[in-house]
Automatic annotation (TrEMBL):
Residues 372-384 have a biased composition (Acidic residues). It comes from the Eukaryota. Keywords: Acetylation, ATP-binding, Cytoplasm, Nucleotide-binding, Phosphoprotein, Stress response. GO terms for biological process: response to stress. Residues 366-455, 664-723 are annotated as: Disordered. Residues 390-420, 703-723 have a biased composition (Polar residues). It comes from Athene cunicularia (Burrowing owl). It is found in: Cytoplasm. The gene is HSPH1. This is Heat shock protein 105 kDa. Interacts with HSPA8/HSC70. Interacts with HSPA1A (via NBD) and HSPA1B (via NBD). The keyword Nucleotide-binding applies. SUPFAM superfamilies: Actin-like ATPase domain (SSF53067), Heat shock protein 70kD (HSP70), C-terminal subdomain (SSF100934), Heat shock protein 70kD (HSP70), peptide-binding domain (SSF100920). The lineage of its organism: Eukaryota, Metazoa, Chordata, Craniata, Vertebrata.
Length: 723
């Protein structure tokens, strides 16, 4: 670990969506074991050593590598490919700078100052020392959660071969973290406000996460809700269990109890656009805070040419990142109508199931001539003059088609039309309202019939959208990253194979050397033992010197050289272990077949049916195998253990198989069956009478019945007491 700590990457997800010159990045940079560097696009990059060369990877690349590794781990355990996953993302109400790492940081800062004054050492000057201090402070924090007494902190050879020590108790820790503890209440207040609940409405509170185990944190949460908090869930597994449940809900392979989760958009999203006069801007909040997601809305614009929409978070102060812009979307190929009037353009905006905003589609409504009215893509519209734009919009040429209670829905959720949308501050456009049926009927008698409005046939023309998202990777850059990761995966595979080959040599050296002084000792002569032991020692030294970083094939060849001497020794040992057992088994089978042959000669009833010529084959085979076995045992007795065996286990297995193939079919021949004389049925004369008397019941009796089923006409009814 300490050898490669500069390549150990952690806590990098906080740098997503931030520029390198962000004040937060610069502050966190001092606490990391690895180097942060700026990327060409202004983002955050990481400098690491890969394949003994210095490389710079973006935070996005590092995150992709982590997900790839997690995918490989999951596939290895599941023994099947993984194509989809669920990732937990914090939402609703949270403080991104209030967590276990922030409490650790307080301890680190305290002990850094103490070590500096007490030992004249600066832990922040050396990354390795700072990492060790972070580890020890995390352990100290956990111990203080279960003990109120003074807890010692001791680190040997901390810096310059100097041992350092210190101590702290829970009360000191709480005083040190007072400012962090005061911030606990704000996310809780925000949570209750957003969910529109009162403390009294909460039945139970379950807290998860490492920092929630700190007694002071638990006390403040319990005090806020006015009830004890529960910590029954495993803090490390709770989030994973939630993700697993969501996976089961989404997967067609599992059937779970009806359980729905309504996600929400944590930050309000607005759209900004220029009017055609170019002197004013229109702005409209399309998704309010905590709006249900996934959700879609359709906005209607009136334009004579292409126009641009800018999406951004309405309240930059709420967003935990300095950049509040989402992106710019250019609606292309918009043109005026043939009479010079503005065209009606429908733009569909959407927050998908992942909480990602997009301008998904755009279409231009064009009137159709009468001869084109039979085309497939033609729609019929009622011309209405009382359509009016969104009231809080400064652009008079936009309308929103939104679903509200009591209005006709034109908002789509997940590709299906929704019956209702969450409460929204924007009033629906007039074209969506459904007239009150009762009031309409009352007025029918008082008013003359209205003239029918002329119908206009129109068609929708899909428009291309050019999206330029903030911090989104360009296609060329993304393809380059994918290609780079593919090469790295292949290189990692080759490196793993190389390391496996090296480890195989190292394992063979250690394992065989131990066995040469143990079970293999009797199976190698003194001369060969000395030579082979010397070669093993030489190979061990080579592995840690000039052979430390060789190609895969070099290690493969080295292992083959070792096996040329080791395999014969291993073979002698295995033969000595297996040979006696196989000879004993062969002897038992010979005795078995010889006994049967003797019983046959003695006219035993069990074998009298066997043909004599067949039995002679058995006797001949037994005789030949006995002779072979005696010769083999005699030859092997003349050999020492460190010499190759005179007879191998494979030969004994072959003789055993040969013996069984010849003898077993003969001795297991079944006796011929003897037919017994048939008895006459004295009741045959009465069969006609019985058949006539039983009638249909006879037919029923032939039908198979299930176990335990009694026929209703049976006289011999069985009475049972069932518990």
């Amino acid at each position: 670990f300490w050898r490669y700590f500069c390549n150990l990457l952690s806590n990098f997800k906080r740098f997503h969506g931030r520029a390198f010159n962000d004040s937060f990045v610069q502050k966190e940079k001092e606490k990391l074991s690895y180097d942060l560097v700026p990327m060409k696009n202004g983002g955050v990059g990481v400098k690491v050593m890969y394949m003994d060369e210095e490389h710079i990877f973006s935070v996005e690349q590092i995150s992709a590598m982590l997900l790839t590794k997690l995918k490989e781990t999951a596939e290895s355990n599941l023994k099947k490919p993984v194509t989809d996953c669920v990732i937990s993302v914090l939402g609703t109400a949270f403080d991104p700078f209030l967590g276990g790492r922030n409490f650790d940081g307080k301890l680190v800062d305290y002990f850094c100052a103490e070590i500096k004054s007490k030992y004249k050492l600066d832990p922040k000057a050396k990354v390795r020392a700072l990492l060790r201090l972070y580890q020890e402070c995390e352990k100290l924090k956990k111990l203080m959660s279960s003990n109120s007494t003074d807890i010692p902190l001791n680190i040997e050879c901390f810096m310059n071969d100097t041992d350092v020590s210190g101590k702290m108790n829970r009360s000191q820790f709480e005083e040190l973290c007072a400012d962090l503890l005061q911030r606990i209440e704000m996310p809780l207040l925000s949570l209750m406000e957003q969910t529109q609940l009162k403390v009294e409405d909460v039945t139970a509170v379950e807290i998860v996460g490492g920092a929630t185990r700190i007694p002071a944190v638990k006390e403040r949460i319990a005090k806020f809700f006015g009830k004890d908090v529960s910590t029954t869930l495993n803090a490390d597994e709770a989030i994973a269990r939630g993700c697993a449940l969501q996976c089961a809900i989404l997967s067609p392979a599992f059937k779970v109890r009806e359980f729905s989760v309504t996600d929400a958009t944590p930050f309000p999203i607005s759209l900004l656009w220029n009017t055609e006069a170019e002197d004013t801007e229109g702005v409209h909040e399309v998704f309010s805070k905590n709006h249900a997601a996934p959700f879609s809305k359709v906005l209607t614009f009136y334009r004579k040419g292409p126009f641009e929409l800018e999406a951004f978070y309405s309240d930059p102060n709420e967003v935990p990142y300095p950049e509040s812009k989402i992106g710019r979307y250019v609606i292309q190929n918009v043109a005026a109508q043939k009479d010079g009037e503005k065209s009606k353009v429908k733009v569909k905006v959407r927050v998908n199931t992942h909480g990602i905003f997009s301008v998904s589609t755009a279409s231009m409504v064009e009137p159709v001539k009468s001869e084109e009215s039979e085309d497939v893509g033609v729609e019929t519209e009622v011309e209405s003059q009382d359509q009016r734009p969104i009231e809080n919009s400064s652009d008079k040429n936009i309308q929103q088609e939104n679903s509200e209670a009591g209005t006709q829905s034109q908002v789509q959720t997940d590709g299906q039309q929704a019956s209702q949308s969450p409460p929204s501050s924007e009033p629906p456009s007039e074209e969506n309202k459904i007239p009150d049926v009762k009031k309409t009927n009352e007025k029918k008698g008082d008013q003359p019939p209205e003239a029918k409005k002329p119908k206009i046939k129109v068609k929708n023309v899909e428009l291309p959208i050019e999206a330029n998202l903030v911090w989104q990777l360009g296609k060329d850059l993304l393809n380059m990253y994918i290609e780079t990761e593919g090469k790295m995966i292949m290189q990692d595979k080759l490196e793993k194979e190389r390391n496996d080959a090296k480890n195989a040599v190292e394992e063979y050296v250690y394992e065989f050397r131990d066995k040469l002084s143990g079970p293999y000792e009797k199976f190698v002569c003194e001369k060969d033992l000395r030579g082979f032991s010397a070669l093993l020692t030489e190979t061990e030294g080579w592995l840690y010197e000039e052979g430390e970083d060789e190609a895969k094939q070099v290690y493969v060849n080295k292992l083959e050289d070792l096996k040329k001497l080791g395999t014969p020794i291993e073979m002698r040992y295995q033969e000595a272990e297996e040979r006696p057992k196989l000879l004993e088994e062969l002897e038992h089978r010979l005795q078995y077949y010889a006994t049967i042959a003797g019983e046959f000669r003695n006219k035993d009833e069990k074998y009298i049916h066997i043909d004599e010529m067949e039995m002679m084959k058995v006797e001949k085979c037994v005789s030949e195998v006995v002779e072979w076995m005696n010769n083999a045992v005699s030859a092997q007795a003349k050999k020492s253990l460190d010499q190759d065996p005179a007879v191998h286990s494979s030969e004994i297995k072959g003789k055993l198989q040969e013996l069984n193939n010849v003898c077993e079919p003969v001795v297991t021949q079944p006796k011929p069956k003897v037919d017994s004389p048939k008895e006459e049925n004295p009741l045959n004369e009465q069969s006609d009478y019985k058949t006539e008397d039983m009638g249909d019941d006879d037919k029923n009796s032939e039908k198979p019945q299930q176990n335990g089923e009694c026929h209703p006409s049976d006289q011999n009814t069985i009475s049972m007491d069932l518990d």
